[in-house]
Amino acid sequence: MDILKEKILTEGIALSETVLKVDNFLNHQVDPSLMHEIGREFQNRFEEKGITKILTLESSGIAPSVMAGLLMGVPVIFARKRQSLTLTDGLLTSEVYSYTKQEINKVCVAHKFIGEDDTVLIIDDFLANGKAAEALIHLADQAGAEIAGIGIVIEKAFQEGGSALREKGYHVESLARIANLEAGKIEFVKEKEH
Ligand code: 5GP
């Protein structure tokens, strides 16, 4: 997705050889018109799949997911990282090792929002080692929902998550795939544009 790649090149910062900072438009300040385009791209890539719900993880997955949900006409559920006082019964839970915070978070969704009649699109901001996506898959599996695919805004293709998920048979669509972040330079995987 060219406008996303352009934005990453102009505003993204390679903090190290493995971590990309994009808090100008995705992880802190949010660019709504870019999110709108991202939502449209997810809609185009998954529109034949009969999706009934989008499942994401708070907080950075919410903005692109809401735009996709608006365009696809489906609700968006964000898995919560902390159990709130008002959210106690009927919870589906999983655990995710946070790549950026280097800690284990418990994540949960209320079972009432996702069930066996649902066809779920999982969306997240980044794909690195695949732990966040696996936790969301685990939540959807516990609900008995079908997983239509996984939509990722930025995949770091030099890490193992994308290939592991594709080898397991999941339909993963990443809007920008980074080949490497060496020497502070951001390079994308060369591939045919959609
Ligand atoms: P994974 O679980 O695939 O190892 O990592 C994905 C999660 O970690 C995403 O939900 C994202 O929030 C965070 N993450 C992983 N790598 C990066 C990165 O390079 N930059 C930022 N901003 N977040 C990342």
UniProtKB/TrEMBL annotation:
Keywords noted in UniProt: Cytoplasm, Glycosyltransferase, Purine salvage, Transferase
Pathway the protein contributes to: Purine metabolism; XMP biosynthesis via salvage pathway; XMP from xanthine: step 1/1
Biological process per Gene Ontology, one example term: purine ribonucleoside salvage
GO MF terms held by the record: xanthine phosphoribosyltransferase activity
Residues engaged in binding 5-phospho-alpha-D-ribose 1-diphosphate: A128, N129, G130, K131, A132
Enzyme Commission number, as recorded: 2.4.2.22
InterPro entries per UniProt: PRTase-like (IPR029057), PRTase_dom (IPR000836), Pur/Pyrimidine_PRTase (IPR050118), Xanthine_PRibTrfase (IPR010079)
GO CC, any one term: cytoplasm
Catalyses which reaction(s): XMP + diphosphate = xanthine + 5-phospho-alpha-D-ribose 1-diphosphate
Compartmental location: Cytoplasm
Domain of life the protein comes from: Bacteria
EC top class, as a word: transferase
Amino-acid positions noted as binding xanthine in the UniProt annotation, renumbered to this chain: L20, N27, K156
Biological function: Converts the preformed base xanthine, a product of nucleic acid breakdown, to xanthosine 5'-monophosphate (XMP), so it can be reused for RNA or DNA synthesis.
HAMAP family in UniProt: XPRTase
Sequence similarity: Belongs to the purine/pyrimidine phosphoribosyltransferase family. Xpt subfamily.
Assembly and interaction partners: Homodimer.
Full protein name: Xanthine phosphoribosyltransferase
Organism: Salinicoccus sediminis
Lineage: Bacteria, Bacillati, Bacillota, Bacilli, Bacillales
Gene: xpt
